[in-house]
Amino acid sequence: MRRKASLVLLACAVFCAALSPLMRWYAFPRLARIPANQYQDMVLEAKDATLLDYGTMRAKKVPEVTIVQTLKGNVEAAKKIEKTAGRPVVVWDSLSYVQGPDGKMVSKVPERYIFDAHTQDPVHATGETVDGDPVTRQGIEFKWPFLTQKRDYEYFDAQTRTTSPIHYKGTRTFRGLTVYRFEQTVPWTKVPMPKTMPVQGITPETVAKTGTTRWYSTVRTFWVEPVTGAPVYGEEDHKEELRGGTLLGGRDRVTAFAGDVKMREDYIEHTVALVKHNRTLVLLLTSYIPWGSLILGLLLLALSFYLEARSRRPEDPAPAEATEPEPVSA
Fold first, then answer.
1. pLDDT score at 319
2. Predicted TM-score of the model (pTM)
3. Are 137 and 113 in contact (CB under 8 A)?
4. Average pLDDT of the segment spanning 121-150
5. Nearest Cα to 257, choosing from 60, 11, 110?
6. Which of 91, 132, 144 is nearest to 113 (CA)?
7. At residue 296, what are phi and psi to the nearest 5 degrees?
8. 280: left (phi over 0), alpha (psi -120 to 50) or beta
9. Which residues pair with 70 in a beta bridge?
10. Which distant-in-sequence residues (6+ apart) come within 8 Å of 36 by Cβ?
């Protein structure tokens, strides 16, 4: 009976030992993916910002500028691209909508971002755009890879349509989570005018005829939860200027927008709660189940060897039966 039990335990030990690498190296890349139909939004605010009044073409202080960012998964587009890409793909149709303190639109810039569902590497396909302009992204945008490393990454900047390093700046604790801090500085760069302008009748083409150009600079910082690769907080020291041309009435430059853009508190709380939940799911695939299976397999193996050794131990000899002495005949 011990022999049979040891064989059963040995089979279970082999199964657990095999399950450990399978979960980490086979199941994890196939199960840890961004859903193709994901939808999320985020609200950022810039308090006491500087904003251009297009009516007077002069910059003024305003109490608040609000930026609403939405990311909507396009399932149909993802399915079409997957047929030629040969891997799971996510297509995000995003919109960055900026509004002033009066609620009126300042600018809106749509994007289509196409990337690998597991690695977050960009996938180049027709429709990859920023504000209607075709782009070929390099590096990440919006999200870091699962199991983010303590190193620099290439990060795509939608305003300049270019990629540059975003640097790892250290580890800290944020709202109970261990996070990595990343920072990227984009120097003053000439960038296109938004296709949608806040004043009716003004278009990028009419502005170009005046000789006025748009320039942009920012220092962006993200706090990234490394297991999920999701930013839990972000802020930007964002600056935009219009320079030269007759539109400015002889002035060399005027501030179009300047402010310290930060995530709104309610969205921070929602994001942290969501990331904590997803972090547990990723750890199940990368740590809890693989290591748990390996440890359980070793314990079962040790128990199997123990029972096998017990089954092979020679049994003690049976005690001799006591017999009554036979009577002696005379």
1. 58
2. 0.88
3. yes
4. 95
5. 60
6. 91
7. -60, -40
8. alpha
9. 41, 95
10. 73, 75, 78, 79, 88, 89, 90, 91, 117
